[in-house]
Amino acid sequence: MKVFTEQEIRTSFNALGNNIPKSVYVYHLNLLKERINHLKESFPSENVLHAIAIKTNNLTRVLSFIVSSGCGLEAASFEEVKLALSVGCKPEKIVFDSPVKTSEELLHCNKNIPGLKVNANSFGELKKLESCNNLNIGIRINPMLNLDSPDIFMVSGAGSKFGIPITERENILKAIQSNTSIKGLHIHPGSEIKSLSQHIACIKVVYDLAIEVNREVQNKISWIDIGGGIKPKVDKNNTQSTIIPFLNMLKKECPTLFNDFKVITEYGRYIHTYCAYAASRVEDILTYHTPNIALIHLGADMFLREIYSSTPPKHNYYNLSRINEEKRQYDIGGPLCFSGDFISKNEKISRLDVGDYIGISDCGSNSISMWSQHCSREKPKVIYVQ
Ligand SMILES: Cc1ncc(COP(=O)(O)O)c(C=O)c1O
């Protein structure tokens, strides 16, 4: 199995029995294992660290599973560094990225978590890191290139708050030369990147810089962190189709990358998207609107990007309590107190009754980890399946 298909979601949901709470979130650990194995088998086996992005899915059992499979974790905050340590991740396999790290946090890491990898986001942060000799420091570079990724995930151009622009090349080189703890370069160009060539062009900016630095001082840059950004797409044969073409082009454009450097990746969506589904009871149906509005227990509290983004992630919706009934159109509304709280509009779905359960596919990424406190509602019950 490569994704939770409709049939598999139905079988899994039926196996939960009768006492189902108002909403559930079901994460499939074997799917995670398949995804991780595919990633590991596709990349060279030596000298690569896959640090999976915690922000994409921060369930502790999922994180423990990732760590036990030999991967590392990418932490987007000091709190996520602590989370990574709490699930047994070794400091040298944790990558601390965040655009707003405090001096106190960095000094704490230097004293207590030697070997931790920290990617500095700016010259100001490099200054805070000057005395942090126990840390393994990288510099996040903004390649200043256009990228075909949805606007809110595009972090590689002018005005981005992420990384030092490559146009600051001279100052970057000076900073690297003056700090012996700087051993790496980092780039995360964006998410859901459509164009392979643009994605690789961004990575090449950092690769070329590393080669330039090492020409002056041999082996000064020992690792390159190429970030995340690969789309989680599977093709119609259920083949995980995006990694191999990406790697083929990467090896062609950056021929010594895997020989001369340790490579770190930070995939999030690619790993998690297809590993989970959610289900909610239909609590009410407003029949006086066309289409009818089905009200459920999950909305903008779990599906923030779906509701607030102009390029929302796609899901499939199924009536898990009925099959093969006449399909009707519904708007599916969440439980929060604002009018925009609809996770889907004009959704064609088997006829719904109050008390039926709606299943929502492909919920592994940026869903439960983005849970919002708006209206103070409780999270869905999390269930793990193997
Ligand atoms: C620094 C960094 N690394 C990795 C990721 C994961 O990206 P993706 O889910 O697109 O692979 C993100 C996502 O925002 C990020 O900001």
Give a brief description.
By secondary structure, this protein is of the alpha/beta class. It has helices at residues 6-14, 29-42, 60-68, 78-86, 103-112, 123-128, 169-178, 196-216, 243-253, 257-260, 269-272, 304-308; strands spanning 23-28, 48-53, 72-75, 94-97, 117-120, 136-142, 164-165, 182-186, 223-225, 262-265, 276-286, 292-296, 317-319, 327-333, 342-350, 357-360, 381-385. The mean pLDDT is 94.
What does this structure look like?
There is one protein chain. The longest helix has 21 residues, at 196-216. The protein starts with 5 loop residues before the first helix and ends with a strand. It is built from 12 helices and 17 strands. The chain has helices at 6-14, 29-42, 60-68, 78-86, 103-112, 123-128, 169-178, 196-216, 243-253, 257-260, 269-272, 304-308; strands at residues 23-28, 48-53, 72-75, 94-97, 117-120, 136-142, 164-165, 182-186, 223-225, 262-265, 276-286, 292-296, 317-319, 327-333, 342-350, 357-360, 381-385. The chain is elongated, with a radius of gyration of 22 Å. The structure holds pyridoxal-5'-phosphate (PLP).
What global shape is seen? elongated
Present as ligands are: pyridoxal-5'-phosphate
> The CATH topology of the largest domain is what?
TIM Barrel
Q: CATH H level of the largest domain: which superfamily?
A: Alanine racemase
Largest sheet: 8 strands, mixed
Number of domains: 2
Computed over alpha carbons, the radius of gyration is: 22 Å
Q: How many angstroms separate the termini?
A: 11 Å
Strand content: 15-25%
The H/E string reads HEHEHEHEHEHEEHEHEHHEHEEHEEEEE
Give the averaged pLDDT, no decimals.
94
Proportion in helices: 25-40%
**Shape-level CATH architecture of the largest domain:** Alpha-Beta Barrel
Give the structural class. alpha/beta
